[in-house]
């Protein structure tokens, strides 16, 4: 038997001759015209929504999605609510095709009618058993996953990724996903679409496992989700700053559909020069190899810093020699740290924006000290411009412990408590 | 670590056990392909009076970890949603949605069997039924590798059956399936079936006496399972997070979930 | 032979507004041996009297566990009950599969009620010749439903159907106030006493002719037969001071 599964079930050429393609459409080498072809179903989504994100907290769930429906790269509809509440206990978040979302929403409405038909709404309220007999989010998720799987098995998929959030039959927080293939899974944090890449790591930082859910308050969960929505808007081109957010807990569904992103900082955008990794005036890579001062010295450009600085549109505020002193002092400080150590060094360069000739405008510093970076799980430093910059005040994120100070050179050394891989230097003006 | 070192990584694509796109000679068109590979690995080993089935709990999609806890092992039969009194375990690896559908179908059929016949289905009957379910859908297969385990009602020995996606099946002493099957199976061949192990001192010229495989005891088997998975985790990105292990004996099913590396 | 001209099918009304075929079907229920059901705040109990066709034959099946949370007791044509219980089993499994939840007893009852009703409105169909008591616990708590061949269903606090069931109902009506707060054991005893009241003088409840089904909150529906019910029979009847026959409620 042929070991290639692709050949299974096909007539053997040596016995039956070549495959007769006449029944296929002309585009596939056959003779059939499209009008006489078999029914075809959705081959791709048309108007789409992007990420949905959700996180569990001690007594409930927070779920969010922005209000945009895109037509390819066109931001086509800017007021589309992609969170659909269901019966006081559940919210379904939809990513993917919007018309399929609307179809599923109609399914949900008829399901709601069917569920409430047997017992009147009055009975639901009065009887103690009423709210227990309501469909829980787990029941709804099972139902929707069956719908999705049936449609994929019919080769007529509903082109969506769904998050079902809410309370289950026992009023415990429930969060699970179902997608166009009928794949289902559950986790304390979930994100679809771009969110799976950008938001999920941030969410998992806050809630790494089911046990951690106990320690998360409603406020913390909401704050985390809002922060993630911001990151998604920064980096997902098919997103917008108006979004919906819902909190489901014992007191019911609280759905807000007209939220706006707050405290955006696009300052980092000014420093972006083209795509990809940017040239950093001074950086040291390959943490494992750098051990001694001499080795580190090798990483300095031959003629001090000027060569490296030349590549950069900005000029240093201090002269290269001074900068070099600081650098070496930092290196000495690193030397004193216990081994083994993993290093990744970023300098908070004070740069002259180049605007004022006579005065030094110390306006921005590289954003490595900003808490946004520190809290994110992005574990690679990609140089200039990839992170928002902050104004150079004396704020240091609280989670960073001051581990040493080098007097002669004006530099302070901080060690992140959460992640000891990073050492951050901060130039003091 | 740093992004600027990323380019030093080998630029090979990850290998998946299934094609990521529909096989087609036509120019690539954005069309619907109803399968995906959700990674993960399973294995089963039978002993003299028990069967152990294990699987990791990671669920992946490409490079994404969808969740760290998605069981691949399911109790079959018994009563109610908790499968009280069940003595058969099914493990499925491959396309998770198909795995789930297969599990639900088999479980429903086994429960109906009990309702209609007033007694529990035997493992070998259940094994054949599973084969039929898979075979009936051979033109649109459940894209899973299944392993079924229980205790033989006739002689009390551990019973283990393994399947291909279209229903070919076989009773075996051990079997690994899924993403890391190619890593685990040779290990099991050597440690369970004692392949390439010879009696010390029996080598005389070309004469070598193969060691004869005997049923292993439970501690040994559980040790092998843990070793197999901790090793697979090191070498396969789609395996990790948790190890779910079920031991089926005549008394019932014992289940443990152990941590695996989450990287 | 015929009682009148209006009982040839189940779709024709008599001038008095009756459908005789349905009423005959209800007679079939009265031919069946008695079954009793009671609910408390926490439990639902079914008790049934099994008949054997002859000395050498086995006893009929009166209580059928359907899902883990409920079961049915039947009076009337056992084969019709089997068809209905198969349907209920399927519907119950379907509810678990599509919604991951045990079906509500009110829902499964109205499903078979609707099904039975169609038999009374389509030519060539025959009504089911069986009555059912559906008892168990769902998300709304313990329940007991009565199903009749006409498709009529009622939720009951206590109920008895089948031959001579009037006596059982009398017992149940007299003790109705006690059921709500009764414990599991008390409820079982009440069911057995009600069942006993329906027996003719020369008959006794034995471990061979009695079936029990018990469901409760956080407790799966469980059927008890044979030796499992021996102690209940003993404590309910034998230990009564006055020869076991007298019940405090008989006064």
UniProtKB/TrEMBL annotation, chain A:
Localization, UniProt = Nucleus
This protein's UniProt keywords? Cytoplasm, Nucleus, Proteasome
Query: Superkingdom of this entry's organism?
Result: Eukaryota
The entry's cellular-component GO terms read: cytoplasm; nucleus; proteasome core complex, beta-subunit complex
Set out the biological process GO terms recorded for this chain's protein. Answer: proteolysis involved in protein catabolic process
Put simply, this protein is called Proteasome subunit beta
Q: Which species is this record about?
A: Salinomyces thailandicus
UniProtKB/TrEMBL annotation, chain B:
The record's section on PROSITE patterns has: PROTEASOME_BETA_2
Species of provenance: Salinomyces thailandicus
Localized where?
Nucleus
GO process annotations (BP): proteolysis involved in protein catabolic process
Q: What keywords were assigned to this record?
A: Cytoplasm, Nucleus, Proteasome
Name of the featured protein: Uncharacterized protein
What's a Pfam family in this record? Answer: Proteasome
Q: Where is this region: Disordered?
A: 1-33
Q: Which SUPFAM superfamilies match?
A: N-terminal nucleophile aminohydrolases (Ntn hydrolases)
Point to the regions of Polar residues compositional bias: 8-18
Q: Name one GO cellular component term.
A: cytoplasm
Automatic annotation (TrEMBL), chain C:
**Keyword Nuclease, does the record have it?**
no
User: Where can this protein be found?
Assistant: Cytoplasm; Nucleus
This protein's major location comes to cytoplasm
Q: Which UniProt keywords apply?
A: Cytoplasm, Nucleus, Proteasome
- A cellular component annotation (GO) from this entry: cytoplasm
Q: Which InterPro entries match?
A: Ntn_hydrolases_N (IPR029055), Proteasome_alpha (IPR050115), Proteasome_alpha-type (IPR023332), Proteasome_alpha1 (IPR035144), Proteasome_asu_N (IPR000426), Proteasome_sua/b (IPR001353)
Q: Which Pfam families did the record assign? A: Proteasome (PF00227), Proteasome_A_N (PF10584)
Q: Name one GO biological process term.
A: ubiquitin-dependent protein catabolic process
Q: Which family does the record assign?
A: Belongs to the peptidase T1A family.
Quaternary structure and interacting proteins, as annotated: The 26S proteasome consists of a 20S proteasome core and two 19S regulatory subunits.
- Name by which UniProt lists this protein: Proteasome subunit alpha type
Q: Which organism is it from?
A: Salinomyces thailandicus
């Amino acid at each position: 038997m042929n070991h290639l599964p692709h050949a299974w079930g096909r007539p053997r050429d040596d016995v039956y001759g070549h495959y007769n393609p006449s029944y296929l459409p002309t585009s596939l080498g056959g003779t059939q015209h499209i009008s006489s072809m078999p029914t075809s179903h959705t081959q791709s989504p048309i108007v789409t929504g992007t990420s949905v994100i959700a996180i569990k907290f001690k007594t409930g769930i927070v779920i969010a999605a922005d209000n945009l429906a895109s037509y390819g790269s066109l931001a086509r509809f800017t007021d589309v609510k992609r969170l659909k509440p269901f019966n006081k206990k559940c919210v379904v978040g939809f990513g993917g095709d919007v018309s399929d979302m609307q179809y599923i929403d109609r399914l949900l409405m008829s399901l709601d009618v069917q569920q409430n038909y047997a017992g009147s709404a009055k009975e639901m309220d009065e009887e103690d058993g009423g709210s227990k007999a309501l469909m829980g989010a787990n029941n709804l998720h099972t139902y929707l996953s069956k719908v999705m799987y049936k449609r994929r098995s019919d080769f007529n998929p509903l082109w969506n990724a769904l998050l079902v959030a809410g309370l289950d039959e026992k009023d415990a927080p429930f969060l699970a996903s179902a997608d166009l293939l009928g794949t289902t899974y559950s986790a304390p944090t979930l994100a679809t679409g771009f969110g799976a890449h950008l938001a999920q790591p941030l969410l998992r930082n806050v809630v790494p496992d089911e046990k951690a859910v106990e320690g998360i308050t409603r406020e913390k969960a909401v704050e985390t989700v809002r922060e993630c929505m911001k990151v998604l808007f920064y980096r997902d081109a098919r997103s917008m700053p108006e979004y919906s957010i819902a909190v489901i807990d014992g007191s019911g569904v609280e759905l807000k559909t007209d939220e706006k992103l707050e405290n955006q900082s696009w300052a980092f955008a000014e420093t972006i020069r083209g795509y990809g990794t940017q040239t950093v005036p001074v950086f040291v890579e390959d943490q494992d190899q750098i051990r001694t001062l001499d080795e580190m010295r090798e990483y300095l450009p031959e003629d001090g810093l000027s060569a490296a600085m030349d590549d950069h549109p900005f000029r240093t505020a201090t002269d290269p020699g001074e900068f070099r002193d600081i650098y070496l002092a930092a290196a000495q400080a690193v030397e004193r740290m216990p081994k083994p150590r993993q290093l990744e060094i970023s300098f908070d360069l004070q740069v002259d924006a180049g605007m004022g000739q006579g005065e030094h405008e110390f306006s921005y510093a590289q954003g490595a000290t900003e808490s946004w970076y520190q809290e994110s799980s992005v574990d690679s430093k990609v140089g200039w411009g990839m992170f928002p910059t902050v104004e150079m005040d004396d704020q240091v994120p609280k989670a960073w412990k001051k581990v040493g100070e080098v007097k002669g050179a004006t530099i302070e050394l901080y060690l992140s408590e959460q992640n000891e891989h990073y050492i951050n230097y901060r130039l003091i003006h | 670590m740093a992004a600027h070192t990323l380019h030093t990584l080998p630029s090979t694509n990850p290998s998946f056990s299934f094609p990521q796109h529909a096989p087609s000679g036509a120019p690539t068109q954005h069309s619907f392909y109803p399968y995906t590979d959700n990674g993960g690995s399973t294995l089963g080993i039978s002993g003299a009076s028990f069967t152990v089935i294990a699987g990791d709990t990671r669920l992946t999609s490409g490079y994404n970890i969808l969740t760290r806890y998605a069981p691949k092992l399911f109790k079959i039969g018994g009563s109610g949603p908790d499968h009280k009194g069940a003595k058969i375990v099914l493990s499925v690896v491959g396309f998770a949605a198909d795995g789930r559908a297969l599990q639900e179908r088999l479980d429903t059929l086994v429960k109906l069997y009990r309702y209609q016949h007033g007694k529990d289905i035997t493992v070998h009957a259940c094994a054949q039924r599973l084969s039929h379910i898979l075979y009936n859908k051979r033109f649109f297969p459940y894209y899973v590798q299944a392993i079924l385990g229980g205790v033989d009602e006739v002689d009390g020995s551990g019973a283990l059956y393994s399947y291909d996606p279209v229903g070919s099946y076989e009773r075996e002493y051990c079997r690994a399936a899924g993403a890391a099957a190619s890593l685990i199976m040779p290990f099991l061949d050597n440690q369970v079936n004692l392949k390439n192990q010879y009696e010390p001192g029996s080598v005389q010229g070309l004469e070598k006496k193969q060691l004869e495989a005997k049923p292993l005891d439970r501690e040994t088997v559980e040790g092998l399972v843990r070793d197999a998975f901790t090793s697979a985790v090191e070498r396969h990105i789609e395996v990790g997070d948790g190890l779910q292990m079920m031991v089926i004996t005549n008394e019932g099913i014992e289940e443990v979930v152990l941590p695996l590396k989450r990287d | 032979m015929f009682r009148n001209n209006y009982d040839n099918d189940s779709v024709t009304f008599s001038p008095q507004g009756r459908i005789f075929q349905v009423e005959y079907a209800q007679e079939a229920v009265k031919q069946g041996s008695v079954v009793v059901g009671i609910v408390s705040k926490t439990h639902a109990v079914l008790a049934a009297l099994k008949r054997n066709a002859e000395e050498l034959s086995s006893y009929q099946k009166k209580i059928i566990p359907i899902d883990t949370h409920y079961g049915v007791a039947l009076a009337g044509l056992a084969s019709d009950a089997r068809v209905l219980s198969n349907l209920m089993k399927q519907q119950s499994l379907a509810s678990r599969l599509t919604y991951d939840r045990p079906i509500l007893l009110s829902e499964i009852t109205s499903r078979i009620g609707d099904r039975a009703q169609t038999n009374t409105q389509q030519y060539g169909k025959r009504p089911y010749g069986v009555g059912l008591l559906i008892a168990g616990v769902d998300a709304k708590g313990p329940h007991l439903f009565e199903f009749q061949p006409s498709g009529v269903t009622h939720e009951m606090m206590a109920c008895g159907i089948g031959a001579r069931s009037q006596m059982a109902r009398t017992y149940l009506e007299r003790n109705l106030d006690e059921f709500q707060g009764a414990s599991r054991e008390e409820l079982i005893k009440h069911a057995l006493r009600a069942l006993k009241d329906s027996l003719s003088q020369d008959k006794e409840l034995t471990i061979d002719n009695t079936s029990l089904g018990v469901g409760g909150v956080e407790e799966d529906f469980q059927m008890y037969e044979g030796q499992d019910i021996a102690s209940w029979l003993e404590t309910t009847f034998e230990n009564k001071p006055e020869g076991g026959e007298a019940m405090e409620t008989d006064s």
